[in-house]
Write a structure and sequence with these properties.
By secondary structure, this protein is an alpha+beta fold. The chain is built from eight helices and four strands. α2 packs across α6 and α3 runs antiparallel to α7. Helix content is 43%, strand content 13%. It binds flavin mononucleotide. The site of flavin mononucleotide has 12 residues, from β3.
């Protein structure tokens, strides 16, 4: 695949085949992801690749705690709630996903089922928990660096036939993730990425999210025309 094909073809996968992902494939994907640039080449990231029983334990306890109403405990600052254009874009993608999944606006049961799927990281066979070194906690640039690596991760995964969804829902109860994924004390949990072979028959996997036109996001300065 050409670079454009990977970038334009990739979309988040939220339905996966019940098929194990070989460790070697994940190693290849992480190797590509870690070619990401980072500030002063500090490479502050770590990837904890979780599958099988530990991942099932994370899904189960994350779901239980969220349903019990335990206050989410993220280890980096998370948005309290989007407003304005950001909220509009959040709603737009939710509408696209719900339409494809046949979830009506007032169907509380199906909506709840969708939320629960998110808490279970969409039952993906693998979850990659991305962390960074705690001594860089007060430094925004390390989060920027991790973002670059995670973008590389999902694109490299797509190149190798893997679908993935970067997700906050899976790490809402960080102590649970810490416990079962054995995250060392000197690392901060940034995000997780659910990964596996995508189920092409899963409706939400067809959704192509829209992007703002480049006229809206770019301003050129000092050009002749
Ligand atoms: C930091 C971050 C957190 C996300 N959290 C979730 C999540 O909790 N649940 C989910 O279904 N998708 C989540 N997503 C996926 C986004 O909804 C998705 O990337 C966006 O709608 C664009 O769609 P695309 O990935 O298909 O291009 C997250 C993405 C990012 C970058």
């Amino acid at each position: 695949m050409k670079y454009e094909e990977v970038i334009n073809g990739r979309r988040s996968a939220r339905g996966f085949l019940d098929k194990a992902v070989p460790k070697e494939v994940i190693e290849e994907v992480i190797e590509l992801a870690t070619r990401a640039p980072s500030s002063m080449n500090t490479q502050p990231w770590h990837f904890h690749v979780v599958t099988g029983e530990p991942l099932d334990n994370i899904r189960k306890e994350n779901t239980e705690k969220n349903l019990e109403g335990v206050t989410p405990s993220r280890e980096i600052k998370a948005p309290i709630g989007y407003e304005g254009v950001h909220r509009e874009r959040q709603i737009e993608i939710a509408i696209q996903l719900f339409q494809e999944m046949g979830i009506e606006r007032d169907d509380a049961e199906k909506r709840q089922d969708w939320v629960l799927r998110g808490f279970r990281q969409f039952d993906a066979p693998v979850s990659v928990i991305v962390t960074f070194d705690k001594n860089l906690e007060n430094d925004d640039i390390s989060k920027f660096d991790c973002g670059a690596a995670v973008n590389g991760l999902v694109n490299a995964g797509w190149l190798k036939g893997l679908g993935s969804v970067i997700n906050s829902q899976g790490i809402m109860q960080s102590p649970v993730v810490r416990k079962y994924a054995n995250i060392p004390e000197n690392q901060i949990i940034m995000i997780c990425v659910a990964m596996g072979y995508p189920d092409d028959s899963f409706p939400a996997n067809k959704v192509v999210s829209r992007r703002r036109n480049i006229d809206e996001v770019v301003s050129f300065v000092g050009f002749d025309n």
